[in-house]
Amino acid sequence: MDTATLPDQFALSLADIEQAHDRIRRYIVRTPLLESAALNDLVGGRVLVKPECLQNAGAFKFRGACNRLLQLTPAQRAAGVVAFSSGNHALAVSTVARSLHIPATIIMPSDAPRAKIDGSRANGATVILYDRQKDDREAIGAEIAERTGAVTVPPYDDPYIMAGQGTVGIEIVEQCIEHGVHPDAVIAACSGGGLVAGVAIAVKALSPNTDVYAGEPAGFDELARSLASGRPESNVPGAKSICDALQVVKPGKLTFPVNQALLAGSLVVNDDDVRRAMKAAYQHLRLVVEPGGAVPLAALLAGKLDVRGKAVALVLSGGNVDTDVYIEALKA
Amino acid sequence: MDTATLPDQFALSLADIEQAHDRIRRYIVRTPLLESAALNDLVGGRVLVKPECLQNAGAFKFRGACNRLLQLTPAQRAAGVVAFSSGNHALAVSTVARSLHIPATIIMPSDAPRAKIDGSRANGATVILYDRQKDDREAIGAEIAERTGAVTVPPYDDPYIMAGQGTVGIEIVEQCIEHGVHPDAVIAACSGGGLVAGVAIAVKALSPNTDVYAGEPAGFDELARSLASGRPESNVPGAKSICDALQVVKPGKLTFPVNQALLAGSLVVNDDDVRRAMKAAYQHLRLVVEPGGAVPLAALLAGKLDVRGKAVALVLSGGNVDTDVYIEALKA
Known about the structure:
Chains A, B: Pfam families: PALP. 2 copies of one chain form a homodimer. Chain A has 332 residues and is an alpha/beta fold.
């Protein structure tokens, strides 16, 4: 597959991601591509780590939020933004909004990590908490947008958000070239699917024979099951996972067609796999990675993908974790 | 002061550091310059963090070891290298030696962190442990070098090592320019003084009106006292510090003249300051920083330097820490 054969019905193209990259470049951290001899030894291949936990606001979400908010008109900026988020999108939107002097209202689940709720409030955002099991966060957001005139900044089903997240994929390909290595595979965590969809569009366009995989936590493996059945499947209500950032009900409307067309699969891991990966990132990479952000490394260390003799790039997508959860992982 | 006025009796010049940079560039991580709005708020200025804990082998020491070992002749490579180190230099030398297929013997204190001893052994080095209070590590190293013909790779008192460490300073100045910020000050931890001396030569040559400070732990503040008295002062035997990486007896022979001529001062912190800084690096930067590596941030957060309205670049120099020590800091 080359660029020309990418289905043109997608919500965005490589060109959109490249434009996003030009737009946000001076605001983001070009996170390095890190490698650890110890991790390489563990999997028998080369592991190239893209640490988006070092991104501003501690997650890749800053890229999409930045791309979206930079395109607001002066009138829209004055009216403000509203976002619903399990946490990292909240931190990203509130961080960008603060620096652009835009009023922000963030709708977050009441069981989100304190680090994410407190951080969003510290950024000056108005935080509204909802019950993850009972309330409809999209409806709450729509009501506020209707009432205040604020622009809704969705977490993934938005071409500008997806394009911003896709800049991670451009950088991975660029940095693999700088390192003189061809990535046989790229793995990125999937919740609503904006990150992995954006990354897939960029990577498949720039490096067509690189396989792109999603990573998901057990219980929230809607993408793996949707890819298997060929249609969007929902998660069973009431599932639990340590991965607070990766808990959606069903695949995104804009993201699923992309992921269905471009992904080589979705790798599913359990909480123990995730804790071991968090500890490995601490020990071998000196990175603080939150549960959801550790899923791609968890998949590798749990043997969900055979990378012996191959090179694989992993997005470690965020690092906003409550200390008790983190210490539990280090003791694992 | 500009380049031309740097005393020419130093063991190395900016040109040596630039040559080192060209030599090691393809082997090192060009660590990013990170910034956190929360840290900026805490100190009332801009804090630009150079996370050398993300360097290969987890510390800046990789730069100097790489610069030194790349210059060995084939005969020297065959005879091997011997290094004495409190840990990070051991990891760095053994990592470089492994990749260049050079036999390495490392002499380490018996109370070094397990992470550092085990890591050096995992790299294939022969590790010899000594008693930090009783034995003379330099004498042990000299005896081995004499007997085996191995080349001694000292941790700081060597122009090539100092030049390698100084590449951190070149990158800080380059990256501050990329960020559009002029650094009013740079702080780097000091043990033997190779890092801060190399950084000072680079920074004072490239950005003459930037003040360069050392950071030291209480009890091992030989540089602060030496700068005050005007001559090399020794630490009192038996002192204790959480900063395992920063425990020397007296300033280096080659490093002290540089530090005496170029530094604006040395900032001294205690163990509680260090633990708070390790936690702040975890929380606000998602970086795992070891005690010695956290000293510059500890100095800022403890108010040892007033940076209100100013920009200061900090080298967080390493991230190799035992988990019990790390968890204790996160609980602080």
